[in-house]
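During the first year of the project, the team set up a workflow for recording each protein of interest as an amino acid sequence followed immediately by a discrete structure-token representation. This format lets reviewers and collaborators read both layers of information side by side without switching files. As required by the reporting guidelines, we include two representative entries from the current panel. The first entry is reproduced here exactly as it appears in our internal archive.
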Amino acid sequence: MEKTKQKINTGNEHRDIPGNPSTSKSSKSKLRKTATADSLKVLSLKQWNFWKENGYVVIKNAVSREQAKNTAKFLWEYEEKNAEDKETWYTAPRAKIKMKELAGTGMVEVYNNQHLWNNRQTQRVYDAFVDIWGTEKLWVTIDRANLNFPMRPSH
């Protein structure tokens, strides 16, 4: 008699998925579908519609200039690159990225770094996410940052 493999539900169907699958695969919450000008905290209705059409939106002055500079400085240091020296920009990654589709995309895996937490804790960033999700009950994750360089033929 041949034995068949039976899938056992361990409660962790995401163990082979890199990153944080808690939000990408198992969230029951859905993004807000509609908005009115008076229901938005940060976004204008025009920005809301842009978000719905394009999947991203730019929030000006979401973090202070000083905070943005501190975060950028940290990312340059972490990646062992120099903003003033282009020769350092295209060196091999410091570590292999588990999600192979992100290789060469500028992802910097600095999970839960304080600079990223500081950015996410600003009121404008929080309120922008409230606008997008349509709820104040948010679960914040800090997964990674991005450091992009101009395209070169060999990269």
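The second entry, processed by the same pipeline in the following quarter, appears below.
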Amino acid sequence: MIFYLHGFDATSPGNHEKMRQLQFIDSDVRLLSYSTMHPKHDMQQILNQVARQSTPAEVQKPLFIGVGLGGYWAERIAFLTGGYSVLINPNLWPETTMQGKIDRAEEYQDIATKCVTQFREKNQGNALVILSRQDQLLDVNAIDDCLNAYYQVHFDEQQSHKFSQLSPWLATIKQFYAAKLLVSPVI
């Protein structure tokens, strides 16, 4: 099962296309939607959606895939629910990068201070990161510096921030997820 988390532009038609492409990895792809404007409420809403959409009969740990702001949430939600994540151009510091775009950017900093301490060390190896060298919104070198000690980091030379074409990366994502399921197949 794959949970897809959209970025800040929740209504982009590219989200549907990404979900369609992800069906080549797993036919069960589900959208996790959130407001993008109210981070504290978003976290609880996303966790509630995961709980509602998952059943005890499902034995595989889910894969959470997020682009941009969705990458921020995918990493945290996967960690909190025991799943795995793929972070595509993750917006790791929305409290600074989204100033003026959302009402409560400081809530992201609050979430970071209230989350499990050193969660990346505890989550080591459970995420795959794909960064666009052509990302026009985020400093991918700073993201790489922050994450490469904990996760596999790959660079795409062609895509922009929105990462419209997942197809060149589907085999890599599928291989990462399959390897994780071999190690720990039960929730």
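For the second entry, the following points were noted during internal review. DSSP finds eight helices and six strands in the chain. Residues 135 and 160 are 5 Å apart (CA to CA). Both points are flagged for discussion at the upcoming steering committee meeting.
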